[in-house]
Amino acid sequence: MSNQPPTVNLDVPYIHQLLNTPDNFNGQLAAGPTAMVMVLAAYGKLTPRSDIYHNQPSPFGYYISNSYVGPTNFSFSETQPGPQDQVSFAGAYGACLNRGQAFGSLMANYAINHGLNAQSQIAHRLAVEAELNYGAPVVLATTLKGFGHIVVVKGYLPDGRLIVNDPFWGKPEMGVILYSWPEFGLTPFMVTFESPLPKPEPERITNGLSSELKQSNPIPELEPPESLN
Q: What is the pLDDT of residues 57-75, one digit of tens each?
């Protein structure tokens, strides 16, 4: 990626909007939904699956275009028409788009309906860095390369370049791209998240033995009293 160690680099899984989504789905308009699914996966709001799309494993691509019930029992069954209005799709696509356009308010509501508080707001550079320093990724609307496009910003380098999961210009095996802020062009909105990403629990080491070894001889738990007086 770069010889510079990143100042912040959050752990967000990469999904390509064309190559990691269902084979029957045309993901040309799906940058926003794909970005949101990446973030929800990072927050642990989506269960990994064993799907294979376009001959590649895709743990989270299913949620972009298929109906499902989320962790709050909300059903993501609303549909929106795909390109050329030929077929309609549900999931993140149906929730985040309106007639082919992604809206920040819809994307924030999509996260909220998974139990993750989010809001859409005006985007600017310092606010993005503040969110990253807090430990939360940012979904950013851009006019990257002259087109309306949405990406996940997950970190930055000391020289100011941003570490981005780009759902279109990235590659499935190497989704991260570095962009300078001016390369984004216009940035009409960003979606931010109330909570930092959960930190993975480190492996417990006790007296030189890992928790995995200790579990082979578990200590029986005591029955709690029926009541405490």
A: 999 999 999 999 999 999 9
One-character DSSP codes across 183-221: GG-----EEEESSPPPPPPPPPEETTEEHHHHTTSPPPP
* Long-range contact pairs involving 93-102 (C-beta distance under 8 Å, separation at least 24): 93/25, 93/30, 93/33, 93/64, 93/65, 94/67, 95/33, 96/32, 96/33, 96/36, 97/29, 97/32, 97/33, 100/29, 102/31, 102/32, 102/33, 102/141, 102/150
- Domains with residue ranges and CATH for the chain: 8-197 (3.90.70.10)
Distance (Å, rounded) from C-alpha 55 to C-alpha 169? 19
Query: Amino acid identity of 145?
Result: K
DSSP letter, residue 69: B
pLDDT, tens only, 182-208? 999 999 999 999 999 998 765 554 444
Instruction: Residue 156: count other Cβ atoms within 10 Å of its Cβ.
Output: 23
Query: Is the Cβ–Cβ distance between 51 and 64 less than 8 Å?
Result: no
Whole-angstrom Cα distance, residue 65 to residue 53?
13
Q: State how far the Cα of 199 lies from the Cα of 90, in Å rounded to an integer.
A: 31
Considering the entire predicted model, what is its pTM?
0.85
CA 6, CA 8: separation in Å to the nearest integer?
Answer: 5
Among all chains, which residue has been given the structure tokens 């998240």?
193
**Nearest CA among 150, 34, 49 for reference residue 89:** 34
Find, among 131, 144, 113, 106, the residue nearest to 192 by Cα. 131
